[in-house]
Write a structure and sequence with these properties.
1076 residues; 4-stranded antiparallel sheet; 9 helices; 15% helix; 32% strand; disordered N terminus
Length: 1076
């Protein structure tokens, strides 16, 4: 018997665990929505632009790290149309000339930078971007161009550059003759060579040109050219190719941009990169048979690999645009170039689009977003509502009452802004600021002092920022006499010690410590990297000679420290990770270091890059390391854990997906097993210490998250995405209570965070829209105002109709016939009330303040109470709002309970959860007490309710009199004095209506009348709804007058209604049919 009991207990545990595990899936937690903050004030890198040929207000924009966006009103509003696809990095967008509703997107941007995302092929949409189909070339990773045949929609050409970090893949020129169903590669055989550009002759699409590009980047170096780079020509629609070389450089070439003159298509231009960032613009006047060098112009700054796109003006012969940090323009076919005017415009240009009917119009995409010119580059309009900023890292301060978020960006400075605001509208671009220019990287803040923060430019240029003055003090540690240069990573790590707020650590190839906020530094280690010569390491499959297209300028130094962590449990227990496969640990503040080869960890390649190392917040012996090996072509995530300070390791990857990098990990400060991990395609969390991971999907696009931070006071999770700005999961504390047992319960109502009590500021208007700023005014949402309730339902509450339809759907899927359910079942469905979840808010005395309805589907949900009583207006029609609000409740303690209503039966689902409503601030003038304010609000609401009842009753009485008049006209028997009685009653109602609303004759032409009850209530409403100061003496006097008038009106109406009762009886006695 005992064995049987144990068996049954084990079986029940197994069933419940499996039952709950099935719910540890993204769909369960989809109700936990993240807020997308943007911002849009500096936007992000643009890869390509397509303007609709028949409607130049429709644009499609391929964002380098932010998907594809569409506007149908020339940038006034935008829609992200590529969310949920398999890639976020896009390099090309094209429209079918024969049917512009067909949109083609090539994923993976076509630059050679160190920070690129990768794609998963070519996508097609047949409905203007509403839906998408992946059409193949999955291993292309970087697609630079898609061209659809101008006369045959089934024929298209793809320039696939192929993988940046490895050989092979889908690279070359691909052609399809069946609308993308199948592809044929017709150019490209080398494992390192892809196609970077295509140009098609507008007169004869069988004539085309393709530029091949040989390039490879590793973690250590970049080689941007080789013998495989060149220009090729086809005269048979891309079926066969010949390389054209006459007049072109004999040396290795790099990235090449092509353009055909629209005015004279025999003329072809090529912008060619040569070794060491040299190059030139070449021209052919015989369709590519021979070439002449026109100038030495080449894209510079970051390097030609980052730009080099070439455009020929459709309006002016010989006018060329060469994409560059500062865009270059030639008006003489490439002989000379001048820098385009870019005053009040971001540089680093990548794409350009023209309007056929406007020679002065340009639309340019840069690292800073989209810019529009209507006067041929004299002035620029910035599109400031495209939130596609690429954030590397994030830091949070502890400012009151709302913390600030800081992020270092790709080429858009270090930015800072509020996590929320106290205004009606949300977080505007004007709420954000730049705290340090250039590229931004890892910021840091000082606990307890929001006036001090740290920010850095690339290569470790660290500054301390005084947030009061805005001044930036350079505090980068410097080598001593006779020491070599410091090797800082492009994104060098900074750490504020958890043991001393003024102590910071900063890393190059060695670790530095400062106890005085960076005024002075001490190196507490030697070189903690492998200290290799990058030029001796393999690239393009082997070591290479000096006479090659080496370029290590605009990239990180190598053999650098990339992450630093100090144990919160033990001062001086410090871990560092490097870009060359090492983890180092010191247990004595840097006196001694122990080296750990990441290749010694189970399943981890020796070359893995350490993205993050984190000491456990709760256990002194535990440490986590997040690594990736994508710079060797390996896109697997490596998530490792040690419980003995790095002496042994085990994997925490569990069910994390393939082909998605892992970037950062953060641990909850309360629950040691609750962790979040930033991945290449989203954020995942675990509630069991890494045994199971679940992706957060609520309001989340497909996007890379490079960093995460937890705000301990607010229990918020903030994610820094690399292409869609910041995201915030407000109050994630409900996840601390998630377990297999909890998920198996019918319902759970979680704890409630304190709610701020205030009246939101009307910064732009007195509603929550953009005011009069226009539809393009960018505003990110605040959290829902008031108290937010989080609950979970194990199962959906379905109606009979939903149950039947679900069963029928399954039957159809199984090939079974669906039968008529019967009339009784159909009638039961028609009469059944929908199930309802009710959240009931009560004050400290147990009085019901508000009943709020919530979703009834399974999973997590969030609904908010706006801290207000329900509307005091009388319900006078069936379509009256059930969610309209009244005045604010007072600060204090409240409870909320959850129940369900099924077929009219209410059943409690949870115990009460207590929460506090707390004043956000005190005003400049001391007002009435909160209790007095609330009492006056209730008295005001009572008057509003009485007035609405009076209004409805007066209207009803007038309607009754009208019906009585009609009924009397149909009388066939004796009517006695009914005519005079109805007349007198009607006159009484008309007089009362004039007293209540004012004389209608005077109001008809707009003449003023004496104050009415309604006008006095309006005065009170205007004075009270926008302030918590409390009623003024005038408000009190007005309310007293209102109540006195209402009492008189109610008495008068009561007398009239009594007379109407007598009239009803008399009408009935006279044989008149009369129904109210």
């Amino acid at each position: 018997m005992k064995k049987l009991s144990l068996f049954l207990a084990f079986s029940l545990f197994f069933v419940l665990s499996s039952f709950a595990q099935d719910r540890m899936v993204p769909e369960t937690f989809d109700g936990l929505k993240l807020r997308a903050l943007g911002p849009g004030f500096m936007s992000g890198r643009i890869s390509d632009i397509a303007i609709h040929p028949d409607d130049d207000s429709i644009w499609y924009v391929a964002v380098s790290s932010g998907g594809v966006w569409k506007t149908v009103n020339a940038g006034t509003t935008w829609e992200s149309i590529f969310d949920g696809q398999g890639a976020y990095s896009t390099g090309s967008v094209s429209l079918d000339p024969s049917n512009p509703h067909v949109v083609w997107v090539g994923t993976g941007e076509n630059v050679g930078g160190r920070h690129m995302g990768y794609g998963d092929g070519v996508y097609r949409s047949d409905d203007g971007g509403k839906s998408w189909t992946n059409m193949g070339l999955h291993d292309s990773e970087h697609v630079s161009e898609i061209i659809v045949h101008p006369e045959n929609s089934d024929v298209m050409y793809v320039a696939a550059q192929g993988p940046l970090w490895s050989s092979g893949g889908d690279r070359g020129f691909y052609k399809s003759t069946d609308g993308g169903a199948t592809w044929k590669k017709t150019l490209g055989t080398d494992q390192w060579v892809g196609v970077t550009d295509i140009a098609v002759d507008p007169r004869n699409p069988d004539w085309m040109y393709a530029a091949t590009w040989q390039r490879h980047r590793t973690v250590a170096a970049y080689m941007g050219g080789g013998p495989g780079s060149g220009i090729h020509r086809s005269t048979d629609g891309g079926e066969t190719w010949e390389e054209v070389t006459r007049g072109l450089p004999e040396s290795n070439m790099g990235k090449i941009g092509l353009a055909i003159s629209p005015q004279q298509p025999d003329i072809v231009y090529a912008a060619i990169e040569l070794d060491r960032k040299t190059g030139g613009v070449f021209r052919s006047s015989d369709r590519g048979s021979s070439w002449t060098k026109m100038s030495d112009a080449v894209s510079g700054a970051t390097g030609p690999h980052y730009y080099q796109e070439l455009y020929a003006s459709p309006h002016q012969f010989e006018r060329l645009y060469l994409m560059d940090a500062n865009l270059q323009i030639s008006d003489d076919g490439g002989k000379t170039f001048f820098r385009m005017n870019e005053v009040a415009k971001h540089g680093d240009n990548h794409a350009i689009a023209f309007r056929e009917d406007d020679p002065d119009y340009l639309l340019i995409g840069s690292d800073g977003g989209l810019y529009e010119s209507f006067d041929l580059t004299k002035t620029w309009r910035f599109i400031e509502n495209l939130p596609v900023t690429q954030y590397y890292k994030v830091a949070l301060d502890d400012a009151e009452p709302f913390y600030n978020i800081f992020g270092g960006t790709q080429d858009n400075s270090t930015q800072g802004g509020p996590s929320r605001t106290d205004n009606l509208h949300g977080i505007q671009n004007s709420d954000w600021k730049i705290v340090l220019n250039w590229d931004g990287h890892q910021p840091a803040t000082e606990p307890g002092n929001p006036n001090i923060m740290y920010a850095e430019r690339q290569q470790g240029a660290l500054s301390r920022i005084d947030m009061i003055t805005g001044e930036a003090m350079d505090i980068q540690p410097q080598p001593g006499a006779d020491e070599d240069y410091e090797r800082f990573n492009w994104d060098a790590p900074i750490l504020v010690s958890p043991h001393l707020a003024t102590r910071i650590y900063f890393a190059s190839h060695r670790l530095w410590k400062s106890n005085n906020r960076g005024d002075s530094w001490t190196a507490i280690s030697g070189d903690l990297t492998r200290d290799q010569d990058r030029f001796t390491l393999p690239i393009m499959g082997g070591t290479q000679s000096w006479d090659n297209a080496w370029d290590v300028g605009a990239m990180s130094m190598y053999n650098t420290i990339t992450s630093v962590s100090e144990s919160p449990q033990q001062e001086g227990l410090i871990y560092v990770g490097t870009d060359d496969g090492l983890v180092q640990v010191t247990e004595d503040g840097g006196a001694n270091w122990r080296k750990i080869e990441v290749g010694s960890m189970p399943g981890v390649p020796a070359t893995a890059f350490v993205n993050d190392v984190k000491a456990d917040m709760h256990d002194v012996n535990t440490v986590y390391v997040i690594m990736d090996n994508h710079k060797y072509g390996d896109y697997s995530p490596y998530v490792m854990k040690s419980t003995d300070q790095g002496r042994s390791w085990k994997s925490m990857r569990a069910n994390l997906p393939d082909r998605t990098l892992a970037w950062r990990i953060v641990q909850d400060h309360v629950d040691k097993d609750l962790m979040f991990i930033a991945m290449e395609y989203g954020i995942h969390f675990t509630v069991d210490g890494g045994s199971t991971w679940v992706k957060l999907t609520g309001n989340m696009p497909t996007i890379s998250f490079r960093d995460l931070a937890i705000h301990k006071r607010e229990n918020d999770l903030v994610g820094a995405s690399f292409g869609r700005g910041f995201f915030v999961l407000d109050d994630y504390t409900s996840l601390r209570d998630v377990s297999n047992e909890q998920l198996a319960q019918e319902a759970t109502l979680f704890g409630v965070r304190k709610a701020w009590w205030y009246v939101p500021r009307p910064m732009l208007s007195f509603d929550d829209t953009r005011g009069s700023q226009g539809s393009d005014h960018y505003v990110a949402p605040n959290p829902e105002f008031g108290a937010t309730f989080t609950y979970y339902l194990r199962d959906s509450m379905q109606t009979l109709k939903q149950v039947r339809q679900e069963a029928e759907k399954k039957a159809v899927a199984n090939g079974q016939a669906v039968a008529f359910p019967g009339w009784d079942a159909v009638e039961a469905e028609r009469s059944e009330a929908d199930p309802v979840v009710i959240l009931t808010v009560r004050d400290s005395e147990g009085n019901t303040v508000r009943r709020i309805e919530g979703p009834v589907t399974k999973g997590f949900h969030r609904v908010s109470w706006d801290l207000r009583y329900p509307s005091p207006q009388a319900v006078t029609s069936a379509d009256a709002s059930s969610t309209a609000s009244g005045m604010l409740a007072q600060p204090g303690q409240y409870t909320v309970t959850m129940s369900k209503r099924i077929d009219g039966v209410v059943t409690e689902l949870s115990a009460p959860q207590s929460f506090d409503v707390v004043p956000l601030r005190e005003g400049a003038l001391p007002g009435a007490s909160h209790a007095d304010v609330a009492a006056f609000f209730r008295a005001y609401e009572n008057a509003v309710g009485r007035n609405s009842v009076l209004d409805a009753s007066l209207s009803e009485a007038m309607d009754t009199i009208t019906k009585m008049e009609i009924a009397l006209s149909r009388a066939t028997g004796g009517t006695g004095d009914l005519d005079s009685r109805i007349h007198d009653a009607k006159q009484g109602l008309l007089n009362l209506r004039a007293d209540v609303y004012g004389p209608p004759a005077r109001q008809e032409p707009g003449e003023r009348v004496a104050p009415t009850v309604g006008s006095r209530l309006s005065v009170l409403d205007i004075g009270l709804v926008t302030s918590t100061y409390g009623p003024t003496q005038t408000h009190k006097e007005q309310l007293q007058i209102v109540n006195e008038h209402l009492a008189g009106f109610e008495s008068t109406l009561s007398v009239i209604n009594e007379s109407l009762t007598g009239i009803r009886i008399a009408l009935r006695d006279a044989g008149v049919l009369f129904v109210e």
